[in-house]
Design a protein that fits this description.
Elements: E1 11-12, E2 18-20, H1 25-37, H2 45-56, E3 68-75, E4 78-87, E5 92-100, E6 109-115, H3 124-128, H4 131-138, E7 141-145, H5 184-199, E8 202-212, H6 214-224, E9 233-236, H7 246-256, H8 261-264, H9 269-272, E10 283-288, H10 292-295, H11 301-311, E11 315-320, H12 327-344
Parallel strand pairs: 6-7, 6-8, 8-9, 9-10, 10-11
Antiparallel strand pairs: 1-2, 3-4, 4-5, 5-7
Helix pairs in contact: 4-12
Length: about 350
């Protein structure tokens, strides 16, 4: 009898006491979950007794969702991996990337979630930003989901680059035909977190979130709509006031309804800050001065800064002279952002 993912690794209880010394605490959890998912194993007296000991010692036994490894590549001493899984929230197969620093081999680590922008998928950030070097230095797991459901065969989903595939806008759609699949907000803030905590060596209550462009908008609303869930939030060139820009108007009109403009406000960071009443949260923003989308009125960061000032929500806007909207810009300052999140995740 063999157990996928289980190699006799550390079995760590909720008080962080080690009962079986070895290398990987999450593999113990995987073993427990495997036992839960296949109750016929209880016919083995030895395995049943092992499982009973785990339960008595207070080990977490959350159901584990199956994930499939697509690739694994050595990177800065750790491993850059890509997985797929069947999403219940989005009713389709989804992919995500996860960087595991070398330190994840023998202890649990905080997690930084990264949300990418329009037209991107789970690979853009991991290939272009150079974040793994800094994640390895600060011992952070970095998780990058895709930006929308894929291959759900909805009419019009592939007709334009700023709506549909690659452009989920991190909202929960209410309009047909989008409402069944386009639920990226719930996917990112609920299903993905459960998936990561159930399969990797995470510190479950230590998470931060960041993103770029549409993903910056996503990071901001995920933090503002879930007070206390994330320890910190940052955004590169975010779509800061989507209810007042062409990208946002198109996306919200399609996903939420053209006549539901009051509902739009509940997905707009510049509107949400006025009602924020959670733990202290600073919005850490980055913007290139030569960003063509800034000049076209798509990003509107000053609107968010003004809204934060009025609501007395701390906000830092770093204006980067001469930089544009590209990943060259993101790569130039991603180290500062990861260090910022690392301080909040200590």
């Amino acid at each position: 009898l063999t157990f996928p993912l289980f190699d006799g690794g550390d079995c760590v209880d909720n008080n962080n006491k080690s009962y079986f010394r070895s290398r990987s605490p999450y593999r113990c959890t995987a073993f427990i979950n495997y036992f839960i998912n296949f109750p016929q194993l209880s016919r083995s007296p030895v395995l049943f007794e092992v499982f009973s000991v785990f339960q008595r010692q207070g080990l977490a036994c959350t159901p584990m969702t199956a994930i499939s490894l697509i690739s694994s590549t050595k990177c800065f001493g750790g491993l850059q991996k890509i997985y797929s899984h069947q999403s219940k929230e989005l009713a389709c197969e989804m992919k995500f990337a996860v960087f595991l620093p070398a330190a994840a081999e023998d202890r649990r680590l905080p997690v930084l979630y990264w949300l990418s922008g329009l037209t991107c998928n789970e690979t853009n950030f991991i290939q272009k930003a150079g974040a793994q070097r800094y994640a390895a230095e600060h011992n952070l797991i970095v998780v990058c989901p895709d930006t929308s459901p894929r291959n759900v065969n909805l009419p019009g989903e592939d007709d334009s680059w700023d709506f549909g595939s690659g452009a989920g806008f991190y909202v929960d759609a209410t309009q047909e035909p989008w409402s069944k699949h386009y639920r990226m907000f719930s996917y990112v803030t609920q299903e993905l977190i459960e998936l990561i905590n159930g399969n990797f060596p995470t510190v479950a209550n230590k998470m931060s979130i960041a993103g770029h462009s549409m993903g910056g908008h996503g990071a901001l609303i995920c933090a503002l709509k879930n007070p206390g869930l994330y320890k910190s939030v940052s955004a590169f060139a975010p779509i800061s006031n989507p209810t007042r820009c062409p990208w946002g108007e198109k996306a919200f009109g399609g996903y939420l309804g053209v006549d539901s403009k009051e509902e739009w406000k509940s997905w707009d960071a510049s509107e949400l800050v006025a009602g924020y009443n959670g733990p202290p949260l600073e919005l850490y923003l980055d913007q290139g001065s030569e960003d063509s989308f800034l000049k076209d009125g798509q990003l509107l960061p000053q609107n968010l800064v003004d809204a934060c000032r009025a609501a007395q929500v701390p906000c830092v806007l770093n204006m980067r002279e001469g930089y544009d909207h590209s990943y060259f810009y993101v790569a130039s300052f991603i180290g500062e952002h990861i260090a910022y999140h690392a301080r909040h995740l200590q």
